[in-house]
Write a structure and sequence with these properties.
The structure holds 2 protein chains of 2 kinds.
Chain A lengths: L12 H5 L15 E7 L5 E7 L1 H5 L3 E6 L27 E2 L5 E7 L2 H10 L1 E6 L6 H6 L10 E5 L13 E12 L8 E6 L5 E5 L4 H12 L6 E4 L15 H13 L3 E4 L2 H7 L3 E12 L5 E13 L8 H7 L9 E10 L13 H18 L4 H8 L8 E2 L5 E2 L4 H11 L2 H14 L3 E11 L9 E7 L5 E5 L8 H13 L6 E5 L16 H28 L6 E3 L3 E4 L2 E7 H11 L4 E6 L8 E11 L5 E11 L6 H20 L30 E6 L16 H17 L14 H14 L1
Parallel strand pairs in A: 1-12, 10-11, 14-15, 20-21, 27-28
Antiparallel strand pairs in A: 1-5, 2-4, 2-6, 3-5, 7-15, 8-13, 9-10, 9-12, 13-14, 16-17, 18-26, 19-20, 19-25, 22-23, 23-24, 26-27
Helix pairs in contact in A: 5-6, 8-9, 9-10, 9-17, 13-14, 14-15, 16-17
Chain B lengths: L1 E6 L2 E6 L6 H8 L18 E4 L2 E4 L12 E3 L13 H8 L9 H14 L5 H7 L11 H17 L1
Parallel strand pairs in B: 1-5
Antiparallel strand pairs in B: 1-2, 3-4, 3-5
Classes of the chains: A alpha+beta, B alpha+beta.
Amino acid sequence: MSILGNRVVRTEDPHLLTGGGSYVANLDWKDALEVAFAVSPVAHGLIRAIEIDAALAMEGVEAVYTAADIDLPPLPSAAPNRPDTSRPLLASGRVRFVGEPIAMVIARTAAIAEDAANLVWADIEPLPALIDPEEAATSANHLFDGSNVLMERSAPGDPDLFSGAAAVVSERIVNQRVAPAPMEPRALGAEVTPDGRLVAYASTQSAHRVKAVIAKSLGLEPNAVLVRTQDVGGGFGAKASVYPEEILTAYAAWRMKRAVRWVENRSNSMLGLVHGRGQIQYVTAGADASGRLLGLTLHIVQDGGAYPFFGIQLPNLTILMASGAYRIPKIEGSFVSVATNTTPIAAYRGAGRPEAAAALERILDRLAAELQMDPAEIRRRNFIDPGEFPYTTASGARYDSGEYSGALEKVLEEGRYEQLRSEQERRRRAGSPLQLGIGLSSYVEITNGLTSGEYASIRIDRDGRATVFSGTSPHGQGHKTAWAMIAADLLGLPMEAITVITGDTDLVPRGVGTFGSRSAQAGGSAVREASEALLATARDLAASLLEADPQDMVPGANGLMVAGSPTTEIGWAEIASEAERAGVDLVATSDFEPTGASFPFGSHLAVVEVDTETGKVKLVSYTAVDDAGPLINPMLAEGQIHGGIAQGAAQALMEEFVYASDGTPLTANLADYPAISAPELPEFNTYTQETPTPLNPLGVKGIGESGTTGAIPAVQNAVVDALSHLGIRHIDMPLTGERVWRAIAAAKNDG
Amino acid sequence: MRVEMKVNGVTRSAEVEDRTLLVHFIRDVLGLTGTNVGCDTSSCGACTVLVNGESVKSCTVLAAQVSGEEVTTIEGLAEPDGTLHPLQRAFQDNHALQCGYCTPGMVMASLSLINEHPNLDEKAVREGLEGNLCRCTGYHNIVKAVLAAQGEMGAKL
C-alpha cells in the first residue's frame, strides 16, 4: 500500500519543537562580528553628507561602510531597458525610500552595532516624495533619470467588447500594499574558510540564487561560494529576492576575513523586506441577460516601490489569470508599473494571482447584483466545463485540467449555503444590527507559473540508507517529509531510512528554490524521477542475486522482492553491497522539466457578521474546497490551505502597509501593523477534490497560495454582501470597522 | 551587574550589562537559542518563556528583574531522554507548526494557558494565544493541538 496520500507527521518537527531550530540567529558563532544598518529616515532626498565618526569611535565598532567605501555593482533593475533604475547596495547620492540602507556598521555585538548605527547621521536635502502610484505615473518629479513609469502594456480597446450586454459594471478596486512579515526577519551569516571559500548561511527561499548573486556581486567564481540554508522562519515570497544587505554582509566577511552576521530587527524588516500587492485596478465586465460573461477589461496601476523588483511584473500574472474559472470570450488587459518612494514591491503569497481573483470575483458579484442573480448562479453559468480542457483563456493561459462546478457545489453544500441565505433574510427582515454576509469565490491559480524545472538526486549508501538531495529551498512547507514519502513509496524504504538534504549548494549542485507553489510539481517530480531511475538499477542487481526477472522485482518493506513473494525480499543494504561488488553506483539524478504550469482551483465560502452600528466585522465561519490534484500528504496540504486562508482574510479585513503623504511609514512594526491573531479567525472547514494534471508523473499541482487566492475575495464579498440591502456594492480592503462604518453612513445618507 | 536564576532546573549566574533583557540573557549568555526573537515591540510572543510557571514575553523584562526566579524555556520541556512533552507531541501530531519560528513561544504560552485554565474551549484557546503571532498555520492546528494536549495532560494529573 502506498504511503502517498497519508497523514504522515513531519520529520522536521522534533528539533523545531525542542528548541533546536537552526535559524541564522542561532548559529553558535561566539566570535562573529555583527552587522546593523543605518537607514534613511527620509523618503526622497539628496544625500549631502554622511557622518560616521561618532559611530566609528564607539568601543567595539570594527568598521562603518558607506557607498563611498565599497566597490560593488548595483543590483540589476527588473525594469527592461532602465539601467538608471538599478539599486546601489548602499544609497548613493540620493535616498528613495524610508528604510533604504545608507551605512553598514560592523561591531563586536549586535547591541553595539545597533547603537552605533543610530549614531550615523546623514544630511539629506528632502525632495518631494511620491507615494501614490497614480500621481507618480504622471508627476514631473522623477525618482530616476527617466520616467516613473517602469513598465507598461496597452490594450487595443475593442469597441465591441460589450456589445449585446444586458449589464456592464465597472469598479475601481484597490488591492492594498501589505507586509509579508515572516516571523523570522531577514538574516545572513558569512565566513571565509581557511581554504579561501566564502560560506554564507542564508535565510532564503532559494539557496542557489543567493549563491549566484553573491558570487556575481563579489566577482568570485561560483565555486568559491557555498550557501547553506538551514531552518528558515517563513518567507511567503519575500525571501525569494536577494537583498543588498545580504550581499554586503557576505562582502564584509570576505573583506575582513572574519565571520560576520546580520540579523535584522523587526522594525527594519518591515521596511527592508519587500512588500506585496499594491495594485489599483479598473475593472469592467459585461454579461448578457442570462448572466453569461461577454467581456472583461482590466487596467492596473501597479505600485513598484522605490526600486524595480519583481513587483513591476505582477500585472502580467494578474492579467494572465483574469479569466478565472470562467469562459470569457474577450479580455483586454493593460497596466503601468510605477516607481514610488516606498519599500519595493515583489512577491507575496500569490504574487499577482490573488489580485486577479480579487478583481474578477468582486466584479462578478457586482454583475450578479445588477442582474438580480444569486452569486452562486452567475458562477455556475460561466464555468469552463471539465470536457473543455486543455482550455486556453482569452487572456492567454492554457489551463491543464479542472472541475470547477464540483468544487462550488461541494462548498455550497458543506457550507450550508441555502440555510445561510435564509438566516440572512431573517436578520434583514428583523432589522437586526448584526447582519450576516455570505461571500463566495471560485478561483483558479497558476502554479510554477514560470515553468522552471528542478534538480533531485538519490543515493543509497552501504548501510542501505537513502539520501535525497533536492534543489528546493523549504521554509516551513515540510518538503523533507514529502520528498522522503515519494522516495519511500517507490523504493520500499521506511521513512526513517531516508535523509533529505536541501539548501546546501555543495551537496546539492543546482537548484531553483521554493516559491510560486512550484515545489511539489517540479521538486517532487524530480525526486520521483530520480527514485525511478535508481529503482531500475537496483532491480537489475536484486534480480541477478535472485536469478529472477528484473521486471518481477517490486518494493518490499525495506528492499526489493519478487512480486507476491515477501520471503524473497533482499534488503537495501544487501543491494548496496551487490552494487559495490558489481562496480555500480546506486545514485540517480533527475533534472525534471515540466512542460507547462499547472492550474489548481477551488471554491471558498466565507461568512461574516457585520455590526451595522459600529462597522465591526467578524469572520464567523469559513468553508473551502480546494483541488490541487492528488495530495502527497493531506496534512501538509491542509496546513498550506489554513495559512493561506489566514493571510487572505488578514488582507481582506485588517492588514495594510500605510504611508503618510511625506513617505513616512506608519505601520513599521508589529505593534502598528495589524498582523492577524488567533481570536480574529474562526476554525476552517476544509475539503479537497483531486483532479490530476497530466503535466507531471505525480499528477500534482501547487497548493501553497490557493488559500490566499480564494480567501481574499470570499471574505471581501461576504462583507459587501452583508450590506448589499443598503445599496452598498463595493468597499475597498482592508475592511476595518471605520471603513465599513463610513460606507454604511454614506449609504444611509444617500438613501 | 550579577544576575542569578534557575533556568530549566539548573542555577545559572552571570555578570551582564544592566540593560540586558531576559531574552538576551537566555540566548546570548546561556546559549539557549530555542527562544526566538520575532519583533522589537513585544507584539509577537516568539520569545515567550515561563517565569515561576507563568508565561512571560522574555523581551519585556530585564534579566535583573527575574534574578532569583525560576525560568523554563522550550529546552526544558522534553524528558532528558528526548521524549517529547505531551504538548510538544500534540503540536507534531496536529501539524501545529510549519516554519517553527513562533513555535517555542507558542508552546510555552500554551503550556501556561493549559495550566492556568482548566477546561479550555476553542474560543478560550484563541483568546489566550492572542499575544502570540504565527504567520504560517492560520492558528487552526495550533488550537487543535492545545485542546488535544489539554485532554491528555488532564488525564495524566
